[in-house]
Amino acid sequence: MNTALITGASRGIGLGIARMLAEQGYGLTITARGQERLDAVTAELRDLGADDVVTVAADLADEDAPAAIAAAHAARFDRLDALILNAGVGSAGNIAEFPMKRYDKTFAVDVRAPFMLLQQCLPLLRTTAADSPRGARVIALGSITGVYAEPGLAAYGAAKAAMNSLIETLNVEESGAGISGTAIAPAFVDTDMSAWTRESVPQESMVGVQDIVEIAAMALRLSRQAVIPKIVVGRAGTDGYRA
Ligand SMILES: NC(=O)c1ccc[n+]([C@@H]2O[C@H](COP(=O)([O-])OP(=O)(O)OC[C@H]3O[C@@H](n4cnc5c(N)ncnc54)[C@H](OP(=O)(O)O)[C@@H]3O)[C@@H](O)[C@H]2O)c1
């Protein structure tokens, strides 16, 4: 049985990826802050075909959360085929006025937590890659703002640029042994996270959750020889280089 660990699996893109993997019979560890919502999602994922579902309610801004999440997965499963570093936060504000408290929160959740979770999961990813023709995969949710600068999104963009670099370094260090990563870097995706911008960015122009799910599914189907560091997804009505 293949297994995956998905952060931010209670809503939006993370839930879409969790549903796709449940339909493929994966064993899943899912995390987010709210236990109640995770319980509701667990029931749905089991109905869809998930082999087993472990939930961990944790705030990724907490320093110890990544280790606890990795330990919960390792306690139930003896392999990790797909690590989905999806949970993220972000808020708008120009550099001149951006509060450092919000900067610290963004970097804690979007950079420190995924780095530490990857570090904690590497032993199991290595074990899995050693005996799997597809190796083991890491899918990370970056953002187009981490690739092409967007006014008003400096902290978020810088955090997401760090994600691209983390995945590229992972590929240099580990892909020869079968663990490779892909950062998906989309423009606005139609989820709760982008609701604040619906007045200026038409909802119907936003990338669909299912588009991101399809990209993740494709990356997980590849052989261990194929390494795709980054996939940028532009939005209809733009030149493809704007959020
Ligand atoms: N939507 C977009 O326009 C867009 C565009 C580019 C990239 N992305 C990236 O895609 C990823 C998923 O975004 P989304 O649009 O699906 O977001 P979303 O709908 O807001 O969902 C975010 C998920 O992360 C969890 N989460 C939020 N803060 C958390 C924290 N501090 N600790 C643990 N879990 C937390 C949420 O659950 P709880 O609230 O229960 O904790 C939820 O499951 C993010 O990394 C985001 O930056 C999104």
UniProtKB/TrEMBL annotation:
CDD domains: SDR_c (cd05233)
Domain of life: Bacteria
Listed SMART domains: PKS_KR (SM00822)
Positions of the Ketoreductase domain: 2-192
Enzyme class, first EC level, given as a word: oxidoreductase
Pfam families membership: adh_short
Keyword Oxidoreductase: yes
GO MF assignments: 3-oxoacyl-[acyl-carrier-protein] reductase (NADPH) activity
InterPro entries, A to Z: KR_dom, NAD(P)-bd_dom_sf, SDR_fam
Sorted UniProt keywords: Oxidoreductase
E.C. designation(s): 1.1.1.100
PANTHER family per record: EG:BACR7A4.14 PROTEIN-RELATED, ZGC:101858
Official protein name in the record: Short-chain dehydrogenase/reductase SDR
Organism this protein belongs to: Mycolicibacterium chitae
